[in-house]
Amino acid sequence: MLDRWLRPLRSRAKITVLCLLLTFIVLHGTFTSAKSGSSEESSDNHTSYASRKRAESRRSLEEAQNDNNDKNYAEFEISKILVDEEGGDEEKPHPNKPYSLGPKISDWDQQRSEWLKNNPEFSNFIGPNKPRVLLVTGSSPKPCENPVGDHYLLKSIKNKIDYCRLHGVEIFYNMALLDAEMAGFWAKLPLIRKLLLSHPEIEFLWWMDSDAMFTDMAYEVPWERYKDSNLVMHGWNEMVYDEKNWIGLNTGSFLLRNCQWSLDLLDAWAPMGPKGKIREEAGKVLTRELKGRPVFEADDQSAMVYLLVKERAKWGEKVYLENAYYLHGYWGILVDRYEEMIENYHPGLGDHRWPLVTHFVGCKPCGKFGDYPVERCLRQMDRAFNFGDNQILQMYGFMHKSLASRRVKRVRNETANPLETKDELGLLHPAFKAVKVSASS
Amino acid sequence: MLDRWLRPLRSRAKITVLCLLLTFIVLHGTFTSAKSGSSEESSDNHTSYASRKRAESRRSLEEAQNDNNDKNYAEFEISKILVDEEGGDEEKPHPNKPYSLGPKISDWDQQRSEWLKNNPEFSNFIGPNKPRVLLVTGSSPKPCENPVGDHYLLKSIKNKIDYCRLHGVEIFYNMALLDAEMAGFWAKLPLIRKLLLSHPEIEFLWWMDSDAMFTDMAYEVPWERYKDSNLVMHGWNEMVYDEKNWIGLNTGSFLLRNCQWSLDLLDAWAPMGPKGKIREEAGKVLTRELKGRPVFEADDQSAMVYLLVKERAKWGEKVYLENAYYLHGYWGILVDRYEEMIENYHPGLGDHRWPLVTHFVGCKPCGKFGDYPVERCLRQMDRAFNFGDNQILQMYGFMHKSLASRRVKRVRNETANPLETKDELGLLHPAFKAVKVSASS
């Protein structure tokens, strides 16, 4: 009789234990996924100032929204614990193994030098004082949440195509997330490393955010200035090293030399990136350590400031914080002055008088939550685009009707002797385009 | 007394005459504007097969829709009869003056030759058998009516950037309507002429529609084959010259040499283009004269067929109708075979086994009225994009998880000796990229 009484008890006990187990698993899973970093931006590498200053609540809202929308990466998370039907396990990061961008390479300078010697037709210099440069940018493989966002990505890449064509720079437009752990603003690190190692002929890799546009089509980067530098970012020494200010430099537009030092830097830069607990905790450190930084997960820019401050002796000598021209130019202080610039100055200056780059940090036209009113951002992006586009159009005798207008008007008549007409800016056949192949350096 | 009776009559008469005059002016204006061609596509140069076969009613609907949306060009029409406030009349075409792309040039070969001699650093050949090529494409300066359309334009230009980077081809992405009379598919003519004349260093201009994508990243155009040709289009001699079939050739992807012959061709091609009565009437001629052509306004492709048929003796010798590979490949017969191609063939073939170009004629992802179900088009465009993108990603050890998926997976491990790894297709440092500057030809 006891047995008959105990049997249901044992069944219930089993059920109870099973339920408890399932509850634990579910709770654990919930707890873990709630800590996952936002993968909203996947391959969208906006680094935003104001977004980092705005309330954390907005970001939480974004994350919730994005977890719903970002099915790709949720699926990837799930697949990490399933065997890949296509015949192999998904790459699942070992929880206790520190993150790595790839196998350690210590002799890259020698490997690269050897390769260049054996492949003179792929020289790393395409002219005297003219290194081979690859401009790298990109965006998410998904359509923008904001329908008009993709139109601005399209205008932005056209803008980059124009500048790069004039300056003999090649473009790599990325739309693939190479490493799910390094989603969001960190996605550029695995990509950059991959491109450097695959293309030894590249001397400099120029990373540029998708929300940054060229506004000086005539300005050539002063490559000679950086002959002893390996990393060039817009910024100020004092703001970084003295103030430890989180916006003392900008990683939305920077130059990185293809060399061992850069591989080492990427390795040193990466550890705060892996999404989840690491990125969260690192974010807290950065907020505590850096001046003015709001509370949010670790971003690549803050991490760079932190790295340079902590290890100045190791990296500082090869890092050039440039502020003589706008390698990155914060849009907020530039866009209302375009008419004044047109009135008083001319292309080719690259600085506050005619900025090389206007960078729409915080606008996020692709997403739904930017830090500025959408209309302000979009109207100013139109103006910046037209400001730059005018410098292209004038080569062909046209200009936009106004900085606000998509329409163009003729400003120079057609002629039967087109080659006698000199375009005002001399951009049709500029000196920096007249390249010859020289011996590898 | 008679005078007192007549006075009001005279006033009324004047008023009546004035009213009749105003009525006439308004009716005339209405009549003229109703005949205006669709400027929907402004700088969107889709040449579509099926759209040209579908009911004319759909196109009328489009025009009505677009007249509402296309305020830019309506404003331009109005401004034609107003004095430009900025200080000059808008360009208004003289009603009786035949359309012209620009002042007649008769010595372009000499002008160009002289320029090349004086500017050896801008050679028209960038390598032995490797002419300097400019790929020209573009789209409307307005956001697409279909929100997802801009995303596909973005993927399309990334696709072109990838191919052109591998093959040493420069890109010009146009978003400006240079001549309002030549809106729509005809917009490419003024643009092409302008670019040829501005860039004598260009040997070949490669026009490519925004709805065409590269699907063979390894295929190099056989430039040598065209040494005696000035215009290369995908097509068949029999279908053009014997059948007068309106799809006997395709103007969505073609090569045009920079020379006098080409300027003359553009001049001969243009007359059917000016929107309004000319384009309408020309359309009727083309429908009557060409096999299989539905009723709609003149398009550049039909006009080209007609021109070649009518003036074969003048142009035929320098026109190469290519069908040995898919300089243009109609998507309908290609996209369902990608898996079969992957199974049986490899990149570098360019033909039916592995098409160089997959061209989504009739899909119109930017607009609202395509000729095929939207889902079919978008899904196939994703597949074509991924099919091409896989050839880029494999260089870096990645591939899309499937042709339908945005996500990528690793297919080759990282290594400490990246330069010893040869990418399967040899695209990282292909022979056709190994260019040296040679003397002008």
If you had to describe this structure to a student in words, what would you say it looks like?
With 441 residues, chain A is an alpha/beta fold. In chain A, 38% of the residues lie in helices and 12% in strands. Chain A has 13 helices and 14 strands. In chain A, the strands form five sheets. A six-stranded mixed beta sheet of chain A has the order 6-5-7-10-9-11, with helices on both faces. In chain A, a hairpin with a 3-residue loop joins strand 1 and strand 2. The longest helix of chain A has 33 residues. The first copy, chain A, is globular, with a radius of gyration of 25 Å. The N and C termini of chain A lie far apart (93 Å). The relative contact order of chain A is 0.14. The interface between A and B is large, with 74 and 74 residues. Chains A, B: Keywords: Glycoprotein, Glycosyltransferase, Golgi apparatus, Membrane, Signal, Signal-anchor, Transferase, Transmembrane, Transmembrane helix. Chains A, B: This is xyloglucan 6-xylosyltransferase. Chains A, B: It catalyses: Transfers an alpha-D-xylosyl residue from UDP-D-xylose to a glucose residue in xyloglucan, forming an alpha-(1->6)-D-xylosyl-D-glucose linkage. Chains A, B: It is a single-pass type II membrane protein. Chains A, B: Its EC number is 2.4.2.39.
